[in-house]
Amino acid sequence: MRAADFDFVIPPELIAQAPAVRRDASRMFVLHRDSGQFEHQAFGDLVDYLRPGDVLVLNNSRVIPARLRGRNASNGGQFEILLLEEAALNDWWVMLRPGKRARKGTRILLRDANGMATSLEAVVIEKNGEGHCRLRFGGVGDIVEALDQFGEVPLPPYIERKSATELEPDRERYQTVFAKPPGSVAAPTAGLHFTDALLERIRRAGVRVCFVTLHVGLGTFAPVKSESLTEHIMHEERYEVSPETAEAINKAKASGGRVVAVGTTTVRVLETIARQEGSELAAGAGRTRIFIYPPYEFKIVDVLLTNFHLPRSTLVMLVSAFAAPGATAGRERILSAYAEAVRRQYRFYSYGDAMLIL
After folding, report:
1. 55: β partners
2. In the chain, what's the furthest Cα-to-Cα distance?
3. How confident is the model at residue 190 (pLDDT cuts 50, 70, 90)?
4. So what's the pLDDT on residue 32?
5. Chain segment 279-305, per-residue pLDDT in tens
6. Contacts of 14 (CB under 8 A, 6+ apart)
7. Looking at the domain 3-63+173-357, which fold is it?
8. pTM of the full predicted structure?
């Protein structure tokens, strides 16, 4: 299949700029794979689609305040820094804007969220073929520990904020209520709809709730630039699956329960481990570059809860594969569902509404 097959247009006014007033007050578009039928529900109705014996799997990675700002120590030019991945203590690969002004040896003096000077600095020590820079931070024992004070929430570019004050509510809302290990530079957005109360209702309905960890990188949202999907180089992300989660999934599969994955990141973890193991899922940690697009036979995931995704992204390709496992018809099914969602004024992308694919 071609990347252009996954192009579509979303009206700008449907790109959600803020979350729902309550996390679980979003709408939920329900797609039935067997019949191709649609339903339109409230997110809180999710419980009605779950069964005793199912296992609900969520990604518990915590978003770090990964966006920093600074100025060039030699000429005062402004830089925006987005942390991507830690290579070592105070040694990070980053996306630096404007990247062309950053040469090896460039010294950057960091500022806080209000634009005031700080004692922190960074030096460019390397650049790679993707245009990313490697920075060595100074003036702090560990830059990660300073992020809560000096960093900003790394909202995607389609969500607009004019000031640090406007960003303040996002520190809570661009984070799941169950987030634990820090490491993501983008939220696992399907999990943003859940509240503690809703998770408790789900448990009381006889559904096991468990977690995996996948630290979400910016590559998640990047459009596929190659014309052929086979030529796309997938981004790499770190994951971990605990023994408790592996056991819960294996028990559910053995007893006829379904694995309900919350978000494409959760799917990527489970399908990565499923490809490596035998008949049962095993706990483990590693890095994944799995790229799921039609046709794909899913090994573990039975039901997918997700958000609405960007055109030409690896996420919409994964969802299309899930809409018709082992076939290519899922692309048409998802594009039809998205067109219906536009007609019914659903809210799109990170702070938007949800889609349940059964």
Report:
1. 208, 259
2. 66
3. very high
4. 98
5. 688 999 999 999 999 999 999 999 999
6. 342, 345, 346, 347, 348, 352
7. QueA-like (3.40.1780)
8. 0.94
CB 332 within 8 A of CB 316: no
- Please give the share of the chain, as a percent, with pLDDT higher than 90: 85
- Considering the segment(s) 67-152 as one domain, its CATH architecture is Beta Barrel (2.40)
- Cα angle value 55/277/242 (rounded, 5°): 45
Element (H, E) at 279: none
Backbone angles phi, psi at 29, to 5 degrees: -85, 125
Could you give the CA distance from residue 143 to residue 137 in angstroms, rounded to a whole number?
7
Whether the upstream peptide bond of residue 295 has omega within 30° of 0, thus cis, is: yes
**Could you read off the pLDDT of 139-177 as tens digits, one per residue?**
999 999 999 999 999 999 999 998 888 999 999 999 999
Rounded to 10°, the helix 330-343/314-323 angle is: 110
Place of tokens 């990565």: 272
Place of tokens 């490491």: 183
- Hey, what long-range contacts does 324-332 have (CB within 8 A, 24 or more apart)? 324/33, 324/294, 324/295, 325/295, 325/296, 325/297, 325/298, 326/295, 326/296, 326/297, 327/294, 327/295, 328/1, 328/294, 328/295, 329/294, 330/294, 331/1, 331/5, 331/6, 331/294
Rounded to a whole number of angstroms, the CA Rg of the chain reads 21
Residue 98, burial from CB neighbour count under 10 angstroms (0-12, 13-18, 19+):
exposed
Q: Closest Cα to residue 71, out of 97, 48, 50?
A: 97
**Residue 238 in this model has a pLDDT that exceeds 80:** yes
Return the domain boundaries, the chain: 3-63+173-357, 67-152
* Cα three-residue angle 119-156-98, rounded to 5 degrees: 55
Phi, psi of 42 (to 5 degrees): -90, 150
**Residues 87-133: tens digit of each pLDDT:** 899 999 999 999 888 899 999 999 987 888 999 999 999 998 878 99
Coil vs helix vs strand at 300: coil
> What proportion of the chain, given as a percentage, has pLDDT over 70?
98
